[in-house]
Specification:
Layout lengths: L2 E5 L2 E4 L4 E8 L7 E7 L6 E6 L5 E3 L7 E6 L4 E6 L8 E8 L11 E2 L3 E6 L1
Parallel strand pairs: 2-11
Antiparallel strand pairs: 1-3, 3-8, 4-5, 4-9, 5-6, 7-8, 9-10, 9-11
Length: 121
């Protein structure tokens, strides 16, 4: 089982940047696909970006453009660089690990507790 701990969220003004981090432990990190999802109250959790064990990236329509996902296997950490932030980016951002990007929603996936991102006007 993979344990995931997110960090890097907080309050930022519109136009600013944040870098979210997700530290993984418990299972071979390099063998997992990793991803970032977001959720706002009353809505389903949605994909922001994902990265495979081989480094292939996948961005949702929401995540493409201003956000960049990367991973540092030596540090067992995946990142989400968030630029040009907008108030509508306000959400809880969750890290997920899974055998593949395709199985990210399945029962073998592990989720972090989330980190709050709040973007003010």
């Amino acid at each position: 089982q993979v344990q995931l701990v997110e960090s890097g969220g907080g309050l930022v003004q519109a136009g600013g940047s944040l870098r979210l981090s997700c530290a993984a432990s418990g299972t071979i990190f390099r063998g997992n696909a990793m991803g970032w999802y977001r959720q706002v109250p009353g809505k389903q959790r949605e994909l922001v970006a994902a990265i495979s064990s081989g480094g292939t990236t996948d961005y949702s329509d929401y995540g493409k453009g201003r956000f960049t996902i990367s991973r540092d296997n030596a540090k067992n950490t995946v990142y989400l660089q968030m630029n040009s932030l907008k108030p509508e980016d306000t959400a809880v951002y969750y890290c997920v690990a899974a055998p593949s990007i395709a199985t990210m929603r399945g029962h073998l996936a592990s989720w972090g507790q989330g980190t709050q991102v709040t973007v003010s006007s």
